[in-house]
From TrEMBL:
This is Uncharacterized protein. PANTHER family: CYCLOCHLOROTINE BIOSYNTHESIS PROTEIN O, YALI0B05434P. Belongs to the ustYa family. Pathway: Mycotoxin biosynthesis. One of its GO terms (biological process) is mycotoxin biosynthetic process. Pfam families: UstYa. It comes from Hermanssonia centrifuga.
């Protein structure tokens, strides 16, 4: 995957907000076992936290009002995920006073996240059918 600056997922435009909302299928939950216990996939939790942090960045608030409890949770959670699963790929570094933009065109080998989405969506359909049978 080539990383590049994206025009999608803007912080506060209607299209960007809709894209952030659509990045997590359904509620991001999967239901497992006989009793269909709910779980969240770590990737979905991380994406939801990024959206919560995005909301916090653009939220209007009084000077006396601090970050929400949920955004504090998300920042701590994301820090722990980066520390736990940190990527050690070398990236170009540039001092702030350098005049040329940083080359964001690096090539990275990524996991197939589409497989995660496929399985989450499949599980959600199966859970919906399970709920219908119980009704």
């Amino acid at each position: 995957m080539a990383f590049s600056h994206s025009v999608r997922f803007e912080l506060d435009s209607p299209d960007g907000i809709a894209e952030w909302a659509a990045i997590i299928p359904g509620d991001g939950l999967v239901h497992l076992g006989e009793q269909k216990e709910p779980y969240t996939i770590s990737m979905m939790h991380q994406l939801r936290c990024l959206d919560i942090l995005r909301e916090e960045l653009v939220r209007e608030r009084d000077d006396s009002e601090g970050p929400s409890t949920l955004s504090r949770h998300c920042l701590n959670y994301m820090k722990q995920m980066v520390m736990c699963r940190g990527d050690i790929e070398l990236e170009p570094f540039q001092y702030p006073n350098h005049k040329d933009p940083i080359d964001m065109e690096g090539i990275y080998e990524c996991r197939d996240w589409s497989a995660v989405y496929t399985e989450v969506e499949k599980n959600q359909v199966e859970f919906g059918k399970w709920l219908e049978q119980r009704a």
